[in-house]
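This is your field. Please look over both lines of this record.
***
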Amino acid sequence: MLNGYGKGRVKTLAVASGKGGVGKTNVVVNLAVAANRLGKKVIILDADLGLSNVDVLLQLAPRYNIQHVLSGQKTLAEIMVDGPHGIKILPASSGVQELTSLDEFQRLKIMEEFDAYTGSFDLLIIDTAAGISENVAFFCVAAEETLIVTSPEPTALTDAYALIKVLFTRYQEREFSVMVNSARGPEEAFEVFKRLMLVTEKFLNVSLNYVGYIPTDGSVGKAVRAQRPFVDMFPGTEASRQVCQMASKIMESKGKVKGSLQFFLGNLLSGTSPTRCR
């Protein structure tokens, strides 16, 4: 039985973006490493189920993936691969179009596998696909907290608003965390957040929580090309410091009343459609 399912508390965080190209998966990987440095046991679920990215970013070559679980060939534990610092990765498949929208049976299968998993962990980070598909909405609604990743680009901001609008109008989601990637500094990052907050206050009844930013930094691109987390490769940079601060905020936040791993698993079943960092 999962540590936290019906017992202790496991935090579930869905990381989403309105569009691709804003560095969402890179944020997921580095947040996981930063949370690990806080003493947390972390699992990353690559929920871009038809187009895997996490394994590529970490230079992993998983033999099995979520498709093997959904088909009944493998268990969740059997497809897990080790990432840096013992972080566990649940890899997605690549180029499998039928997994871009889970049906009720597939949701039930994932729930059963999580329930049967005997390992313990403190944080489940769900790396959703880009955009506003049913799968993205499903994982965001099921998780305790949704982190929206955007950037100063006008299209990224517009698409982040579109995602929030869909989750509010169709699924009654009202609370979102926001982080800004590739900002030139804290002032620009907070200005991007303020623009998003102003438009949501005008048209939607939602609450946005600013958790931080990652500055434009050549070391981030170098780490991506080396297929390593930048918090490992360049721990002294401002980008790494900011990620560590965000990980602390996320782990300390109380989240929504709905939030728990039990809620996450319950939504999988019900078929809802969508310390210091050293």
The first strand starts at residue 11 and ends at 16. The chain is about 45% helix and 15% strand. The beta strands are 11-16, 42-47, 81-82, 88-90, 123-128, 145-150, 175-183, 207-215.
